[in-house]
Amino acid sequence: MRLHKLKLKYKIIVSLLFANIVLVSITTSNNLTFAFKDYIPSETFPFFGAPIHEDITRAALDFLKPKILADINNEHAFVDGPLQFTSGYHVDGCHFSDSVSKINNHYSRAINDLDPSKRNHGDARDAFGQLLHIVQDFYSHSNWIELGHTDPNKDLIDGGLGLWTPLNGYQVYPKDFMVIQGEKIPPGITLYPQLHNNKIIHAVMFHKIYQGLITGTIPYEPDDCPDNIAIPHWDTFHGDKKRGEQGFGIGLNKDSPSRDNFNEAKNMAIAQTKHEWCRLVTMTAESYGQPGVDLLLKEWVKDRNKAIAACSNLFPN
Ligand SMILES: [Zn+2]
Questions:
Q1: Is this model's pTM higher than 0.90 or not?
Q2: Do 178 and 188 form a contact (C-beta atoms < 8 A)?
Q3: What spacing in Å lies between the alpha carbon of 31 and ligand 1's midpoint?
Q4: Which residue, 229, 234, 199, is CA-closest to 92?
Q5: Distance from Cα 291 to the centre of ligand 1, integer Å
Q6: How far is the CA of 15 from the centre of ligand 1 (A)?
């Protein structure tokens, strides 16, 4: 279904549901408290550590019931644990198509489980938590931020309300970026590597220049980033250098506060996570109508006004 139709349908459902609720204006605090003291340094735990993912999720979805939020947040440790070495879950190795299909498969799982005629909806929380991990890693592990997309209000990689748009290798997308995926560069496309460690890749096709979207490469799994433009995930084979050390910042990851562009990646991850809530509500409404949305709000949400206000920019009056 096309987006505007979907929006209209959702608006109708929402207005029916919340006709009697006066939306209060929510002041979103910029002073989000991030428990950086819990942070495990990247030298010993070389990913956006689970505690940082949990902070991001908490900041975006603070209107959920604490128990639900905790259940969703548990999944970060799972994805960074048993699934640590599957790069599609962490948006590494230029496996963009795989990452997006993992997100969409998890959405199917979640929506399937949110069927109001079912008794137990526990798997939806797990599926949603796991897909949020992938969504958040997109910002810390790709060069989206370095390409200049840092405005949480307009620079989300996927601002749709249905399944994610597939990201296919060497396809051009709005905002004039090309997904770089595949060791074999198609004829007619030339890729130019970064200059001066700026993480910016250019792709030229038919005399037009596009931004090249890539991720870092990790040493233990085959990647799909062409060798002439590939950028490692870490500064060294095993992890990151410290600021001031020679070689600091060679790697692409923005996993810890010590990395350049960490705050930009974190803020975009928060915005995309919040957006995923709106997507989940929309897809639930699409599948099950009012009873589905009712169930989701009843089981998951602590602060209904805030949960609705989180999506108010998508569905203005
Ligand atoms: Zn990860």
A1: no
A2: no
A3: 25
A4: 234
A5: 34
A6: 37
